Amino acid sequence: MTRARLLLLPLLLAACTPTPAPPVPGDDVPTVPRANRPARPSCVLNPAWLSALGGPAGLMGVNLRAPLRAQATPSLFDQLLDVREAINSSYWGESGVDLQALHEQAETGARKAFGNLRAATLSAQTDAFMNDYVDGVRDGHTYFLDAAGFRAFRDSLSAAPTSTPRLGVRWAAVPGEDGAVLLDAFPEWPAAQAGLTRGDTLLSIGGQPLTRQPGDSDEAHAARLSTLLGQASAAGAPVTVTYRRAQAGAETTASTTVTPRVLSSAPLPYARTVAPGTVLLRLPTFATSGVAQQVHALIGGAQRAGATHLILDLRGNGGGLLSEAIGVAGALVGDRAGETIETLDGQDVTYAYRNGQVLAGVNCAPTSPVLGVDTPARWTGRLTILVNEGSASASEIVAQLAAQTGATLTGERSYGVGNTVTVIGAISGDRGLSVTIGRANDLRGQPLTPDVTPSPTTPDDLRALAHGRDLPLDAALK
């Protein structure tokens, strides 16, 4: 998820046909009443949405709900109804949009663009329409996922094998320049095993130059790089990579051979020493189980090695499982780690870290175990958190809980959804829908903030990184 998702697009009311098609019998999407939050929630109530997940342990798990209708051939009508039901029954964010009006506008726009809604088969065009419709909620945590995006989400939760061989990197196009700069080269994965590391800039792969075409925008250049890198790695055969590396003020060009292979869809955290007594702990995602366990193990190892300064790198981490996030926060702030999630039906859920366990309770003290950590660690030295505009959701929660207990924030303003919680579920056509289902407070009852903003800010400059300068990390080391 990038900040670009917040650039809200208008609903696709632009006519594919010059006049709206009139409704046909049975084509009207049923009205779904909007639920209201009760004034006095009870401790003994059992929320249906949470039960559907398997209880508190499943929050931010695979599905809020199964597909609401099991059709042989789902249509746009089914998706429109799914979204109405999901949003009206569970949305509890801070959008000021008239949701009922939004639903009606979407139905009118869909009929104008696609005609008979029950006969409108799902396609790239209907996906674009649904994306704009859900973006109309104006909540960065509420969004539509097409089939590929929803499949990638599910794969990340289970750390499923990638569909094709991969290099084992995260990269970005260098703004205004040729090449792809590496944001991550994950340990024990192909690129890192071949000697590549963060900050290296790939200049060619398999003899194909990664040069910018005349007139290309950064977006067009990135799309071309994605195609070339994907094609070069998909076969799983050894491929020669030429790269530029900047060190100690000098830039050199070299080549290496990388053998792509099928990998996990969710890389786990890793650590490396970046200065005497200072360990950088890179946490790329919270989206799979085992993240908290790995963080505690890495922190314990750093403490035993005598580290006194921990830099937690959450840049580009778009969030994931709330239980894992609270488990990670427990290694940083102890019993201050936790939050209460206010929900539309009043079934507020509290998560709290206690002695290596994440506990949960619904309108009650948290007593139900949802996650346990073997050999829990507790960091007590200097702590710096690196964030950027790609740090979202669970990353923002961990960062602000750590900042409350004295951690230093370094980098740039985060994405801006750290005060809400979302659940991603299936809708018709094997697409996904993320819905903001709760507003988050810390364990003192104070609302969490949407974003975290270091002061002063240090831009996460990709061009600087491509030429040997990781500006936020340099600032953290000073």
From TrEMBL:
TM segment ranges: none
Keywords: Hydrolase, Protease, Signal
Gene3D superfamilies: 2-enoyl-CoA Hydratase, Chain A, domain 1 (3.90.226.10), 2.30.42.10
Record domain Tail specific protease: where: 251-455
Amino acid composition bias (Low complexity), ranges on this chain: 449-459
PANTHER family hit by this protein: CARBOXY-TERMINAL PROCESSING PROTEASE CTPA, TAIL-SPECIFIC PROTEASE
Protein name: Protease
Organism encoding this protein: Deinococcus daejeonensis
